[in-house]
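Board notes, transcribed. Complex of a protein with nicotinamide-adenine-dinucleotide.
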Amino acid sequence: MVELESIGQSGTTRNYVDGGWRDAMGDGELESVNPATGEELATVPFSSAEDIDDVVRSGNEAFETWSEQPVEARIQPLFRLKMLLEDHQEELAELLVRDHGKTIAEARGELRRGIENVEVACGIPSMMQSGSLLNAAPEIDESAVRKPLGVFAAITPFNFPGMIPLWFLPYAVATGNSFILKPSEQNPLVAQRLFELVDEAGFPDGIIQLVNGGPDTVNALLDHEGVEGASFVGSTPIAKLVYERAAKNGKRVQAQGGAKNHIIVTETADLEFAAEKAVSSACACGGERCLANDVVLVEESVYDEFVNLVVEEANAQTVGDGLDEATDIGALISPEHEQTVRNYIQTGIEEGAELLLDGRDVTVDGYEDGNFLAPTVFGDVTEDMVISREEIFGPVVGLAPVDDVDAAIERMNKSQFGNAASLFTGSGADARKFRHEGDIGNLGVNVGTSAPMAFFHFGGWKDSFFGDLHAQGEDMIHFYTDKAVYIERWPDA
Ligand code: NAD
């Protein structure tokens, strides 16, 4: 069992409501399990519709006062939260590894990305300003302002439990709203600890709240008339459901979905560098990243050489417990998800892709109950194959030769998803074509995984995203506020 003050002897997670810890009272629960060891870490009871009523009521009551606080007062607890996150980063990273399975280096990197969002949101006094104009018309001055709206919810996935809640939370409260997080029920322990730190940071009661639960909890939030808007991050089918349900209920909504990302390698690229980045992009975090580029399209003239480099690099990865600093690839989230990835590998074989490296037969001494897979590499993956079209979310790389960069971009753009892509090249002309023609939200050139910093928006295109305003940075300020214009005339002023 994990030791956290908010969990205590009971071994169950609790909700953080109106500034205190409360048991969730709904039906259903899940065990949070260490994916590397099989150790049970905590029981996660789900929240009921009444729990959601309570949390939304406190959020709305707190909003009345918070939204009228001077902006400087609203960012002081965020500065304290930032320092608390820094002070507890290593402890949070270890908890994240135990609850998720990724490596300690990945957990540290993830938390750094989360903290950066808190830092950006501390700039709200400048970022929230809008324009004004003297003499916009005869004797009339006009100014635009941004106003907070009320209670916002965020529903987050299992794969970045430390970072993704922070894509939303700091911006929601800095702009003057109140905020409710519903983390993934598969690994909510980092959120549980994050909220202990939120409590210590001294936000007013009800401004930032936590509810644990599954689909019913999400639906109760989306259906509640006291919730102004919702952010969702998760798989595409659920993103669509959430988007439609929230919109039908008249709420603001942004829903980030799944992905299938490509790397293009031209003959002018530094092939060794590109191979290293291709393997880490597809396999780091066990492949459980929405930015994982797992289809690699390579110019025919360098295809064989590149395939050998990728197999060599993939073979050199160390699989094991993420808490061991020597581990490159940790455990997958659950035995069920490991089986899904195994099924995809079997499908790839049956579809006729060339199995160049088989990661299924891996054992990690002393971790017999862990959900481990080593990298699997397929060659000659054609565009009609399931493994070329669907998100696998495991350490699987699929390579294919292409005539040239035009053919590669054409194949990439046929994907139903548009989250991320990377090009490895020595040619500025190829890079420009890729930037201009790629129907993709995050485009990297000579970068393995194109993850934008917190002061840029984060979001995909096509079936990777439903909505218009993306996560992080300035988009969040637009999402969390509405605009009003003041038109004033003072005769004889
Ligand atoms: P998921 O869709 O299964 O779950 C995400 C959240 O939705 C969880 O909090 C869960 O409780 C809730 N949920 C699940 N089923 C629901 C239902 N029927 N109704 C309402 N809510 C429901 O996703 P996951 O497995 O936790 O995360 C992996 C997915 O997230 C991948 O597809 C990945 O690509 C995607 N993802 C996307 C981004 C992005 O920025 N586009 C970032 C991270 C992860």
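Residues 155-160, 182, 184-185, 214-215, 218-219, 233-235, 238, 241-242, 256-259, 290, 391, 393, 419, 460, 464 surround nicotinamide-adenine-dinucleotide (CB under 6 Å). The chain is about 35% helix and 20% strand.
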